[in-house]
UniProtKB/TrEMBL annotation, chain A:
A Pfam family assignment: FraC
Keyword Transmembrane helix set for record: yes
Record keywords: Membrane, Transmembrane, Transmembrane helix
Coiled coil: none
Transmembrane found in the keyword field: yes
Annotated organism of origin: Pegethrix bostrychoides GSE-TBD4-15B
Protein name: Filament integrity protein
InterPro entries to which the protein is assigned, alphabetical: FraC
Transmembrane segments: 6-30, 51-69, 100-118, 167-193
UniProtKB/TrEMBL annotation, chain B:
Transmembrane feature ranges: 38-57, 64-84, 96-114, 121-139, 159-179
InterPro entries: Uncharacterised_alr2393 (IPR020360)
UniProt-listed Pfam families: DUF5357
Keyword Heme belongs to the record: no
Name of this chain's protein: DUF5357 domain-containing protein
Domain of life of the source: Bacteria
Origin species: Pegethrix bostrychoides GSE-TBD4-15B
Keywords: Membrane, Transmembrane, Transmembrane helix
Length: 198, 346
């Protein structure tokens, strides 16, 4: 069977939005994280961090979507028929009823905070993963208690110093996320206008 | 005349046959001896040898056992052959390891052919980028000699990005198959226009353009003709007054009728739940002794038209004398005639 519907537009749109979000967030990360006297990232690193964060939140978003669809298949069809029709109307025909629109707005609101949490966790995770003291698992090394201690402390040493808020980058990710969501919403608005008026 | 045609001609004419065979054998032997024992060519040879054994074997389990070796050697050889090679996407400047993708594809085909883990080609295609990520990533952990170690900070960052990008590509594949699954459940969706969609594009092939547009109304028309046939069947053997009372009561029979039609047309396919059949009976305006039967098939699912889609068929039920009355009593009764017009879109 040769498929006749291809998700090329979804792929292009996602590539565009991801590129935009990465570009914006890397600038925010670079500026915010280098405010203190002690710069935390290089420009190259800021792009890599932003790319990792955004890719991770996108992949997790897709997985959530797939599990929701799987859940829908499990539930009795009578319950989900309305939701399914609304979803297919949106995906296939870009038709959004008022109810769907309000649902989408709520969903975007939730997504914003969920992606903020994911990105913040991703940033901490990355900083832990990329620290230079990370244990090198080369077997010929003799056991080194100091190295093990550093590895075990890992991310926790960032949390031990709540006063050193610059190391936590809480505000940074929030601001970066807000900026990229603003840009993405703007692009989506322009797209939907263009489709409605053409 | 070039060398290839010369050789072909020699073979055809059986000229110097012995000489040619000897030459070939010598050259093949030279090539064989040039293969190092510990190289990807050796692995390829082992794989080919395993395939040869596979062809000779009869038992299905023995075949499968040998094919595992054949595939493993093929995977090792392909991975080895492409080790460290990188290709660049023109214009964009992205680098990727084509070897990882090729090896992952071989692995997917191998798993698929053995029905191990991957049983459907859709799952195999979705798993392909993830296997490719694994094949691209693992050389980073190798150290000279038979040791392994974590890559440095820059290498780890690259690995994170590599794995995430491959996961994203796998998600796109999965999304494609999700849409295809929905279309298989609800084939009627294909009769809509996808111009406005932000996510999917329609690529029409010549073969389905011919089938194209009319399928929509044909589907609904099948529903209507089935409904008509069902009603006809229910009415057989009834005289006019019986038919009249049955038709007047059709509203209460509607759920039953709906179910019968959907079972006949769709069987257990989920699309049947998204059609609604309604039958309305009214007095005909022109002749008071006739009834109007209006059958409507309404699509309840997603559609590119805001007002949805519905097809209507008008039928006229009129009183007639019975065609061949058996008895005097039957001559007193009247039969009926059901005539239907072609369905119209509303």
């Amino acid at each position: 069977m040769v498929a006749n519907l291809w998700p090329f537009r979804a792929i292009m749109l996602q590539a565009l939005l991801l590129t935009m979000a990465i570009a914006i967030e890397s600038i925010v990360l670079l500026r915010q994280m280098n405010r203190s006297n002690r710069p935390q990232v290089t420009p190259r690193q800021s792009i890599q961090y932003a790319a990792s964060m955004n890719l991770l939140s996108t992949v997790l978003g897709w997985l959530t979507l797939f599990s929701l669809f799987d859940l829908e298949d499990l539930l009795p069809p009578d319950w989900t028929r309305g939701a399914q029709t609304a979803v297919l109307n949106f995906i296939l025909f870009n038709r959004v009823s008022d109810e769907t629109l309000s649902f989408l707005i709520v969903l975007a609101f939730i997504t914003f905070f969920a992606s903020f949490a994911v990105k913040q966790a991703a940033l901490w995770g990355l900083r832990w993963l990329l620290q230079s003291e990370f244990p090198q698992s080369v077997p010929d090394l003799s056991p080194d208690p100091e190295r093990d201690r550093l590895a075990a402390v890992g991310i926790r040493d960032l949390r031990k110093n709540p006063r050193d808020s610059s190391a936590l980058n809480l505000g940074t990710v929030l601001i970066a996320n807000a900026w990229s969501y603003a840009a993405v919403s703007a692009v989506l608005l322009i797209l939907s206008w263009q489709f409605n008026f053409s | 005349m070039n060398r290839l045609t010369q050789i072909l001609l020699d073979i055809v004419l059986l000229k110097n046959a012995g000489q040619i065979v000897r030459n070939r054998a010598q050259r093949t032997q030279a090539w064989f001896t040039s293969i190092k024992p510990f190289s990807w060519e050796a692995m390829l040879m082992l794989s080919l040898f395993s395939w040869f054994v596979y062809l000779l074997l009869q038992g299905i389990y023995a075949k499968q056992f040998v094919s595992i070796f054949a595939w493993s050697f093929l995977i090792i050889s392909s991975d080895w052959a492409f080790l460290g090679q990188q290709a660049q996407v023109p214009l964009l400047g992205f680098k990727f390891q084509q070897g990882a993708w090729i090896t992952a594809a071989i692995l997917c085909v191998a798993l698929l052919s053995n029905d191990f883990i991957l049983t459907q080609w859709q799952t195999a295609l979705t798993a392909w980028p993830i296997f490719a990520a694994l094949f691209a990533a693992y050389p980073q952990f190798l150290r000279p000699g038979l040791r392994w170690g974590l890559p440095g900070a820059a290498g780890r960052q690259d690995l994170v990005l590599l794995v995430l990008v491959h996961c994203l590509i796998a998600c796109w594949f999965q999304f494609h198959f999700l849409i295809q699954g929905r279309l298989a459940d609800y084939p009627y969706l294909l009769n809509n226009s996808f111009e406005d969609s932000l996510f999917v594009t329609r690529i029409r092939l010549n073969s389905d353009r011919a089938v194209g547009e009319n399928t929509a109304s044909r589907q609904a028309a099948t529903l209507l003709t089935t409904a008509e046939a069902t009603i006809r069947q229910a009415l057989t053997g009834k005289n006019w007054s019986e038919a009249y009372s049955w038709l007047s009561d059709i509203k209460s029979l509607q759920p039953d009728l709906n179910q019968q039609v959907m079972k006949a047309v769709y069987d257990e396919q989920p699309e049947g739940h998204l059609w609604q059949m309604t039958a309305d009976v009214g007095r005909n305006a022109i002749s008071s002794s006739s009834l109007d039967l209006i059958l409507t098939a309404r699509w309840l699912g997603a559609s590119s038209r805001p007002e949805g889609y519905a097809l209507r068929q008008r039928c006229l039920v009129s009183e007639t004398s019975l065609p061949n009355p058996d008895s005097f009593a039957q001559m007193q009764q009247t039969g009926f005639q059901l005539t239907c017009q072609a369905p119209v879109e509303v």
